[in-house]
Amino acid sequence: MTMSLTRRPVRLLTLGATALVAVGLLGACASGNGSSDETTAGSGASSAAAADAEVTVYDQTGLLLVTAQETFEGKGLVVDVADATGQGRTIDDPTQWVVVTQDPIDGTLPAGSTVTLTARMTTDDVSTEN
């Protein structure tokens, strides 16, 4: 019985020390997130800087449409999507579509620019692509 009493305080100290380290690391990460720049520059200045930002575009062909859309929209780009078969089908579930072509394929664009993707359903015959 004395052995189990001895183990508990050791475990509690270990958990407590781990929690303190985690809180310290989270605090260090949060302090470096650039929030001081936003407060000194003002919200109007940061909005103008975001509009002038350049975004690097990488080739997303062969990936699921949902992945490409999330990537580009996360970078502040507008995504235009079309059915690669030319049938004009509505894309209700982008997890079931694969990117076939992309314009532009790569490079640098101003934030807010449009990237055009054509996609086919994962079940489509590849020979039906235009």
Structure description:
It is a single chain. The protein has 130 residues and is of the alpha+beta class. It has 2 domains: 2-33; 53-128, Trypsin Inhibitor V, Chain A, CATH 3.30.10. The protein has helices spanning 2-31, 35-41, 43-51, 65-74, and strands at residues 54-57, 78-83, 97-103, 107-110, 114-121. It has a 3-stranded mixed β-sheet, with helices on one face. A two-stranded antiparallel ribbon has the order 1-4. The chain is elongated. It starts with a helix and ends in a 9-residue tail after the last strand.
Distance between the termini: 76 Å
Total domain count: 2
Taken from the alpha-carbon principal axes, the silhouette is elongated
Radius of gyration: 25 Å
**What is the correct CATH architecture of the largest domain?**
2-Layer Sandwich
Bin the helical content: 40-55%
Whole-number mean pLDDT: 75
Largest sheet: 3 strands, mixed
* N-to-C SSE string, H for helix and E for strand: HHHEHEEEE
Question: So how many helices?
Answer: 4
CATH topology tier name of the largest domain = Trypsin Inhibitor V, Chain A
| DSSP strand content | 15-25%
* SSE class: alpha+beta
Summarize the structure.
The protein is α+β, with helices and mostly antiparallel strands. The protein has helices at residues 2-31, 35-41, 43-51, 65-74, and strands at 54-57, 78-83, 97-103, 107-110, 114-121.
Q: Strands, helices and their partners?
A:
Layout: H1 2-31, H2 35-41, H3 43-51, E1 54-57, H4 65-74, E2 78-83, E3 97-103, E4 107-110, E5 114-121
Parallel strand pairs: 2-5
Antiparallel strand pairs: 1-4, 3-5
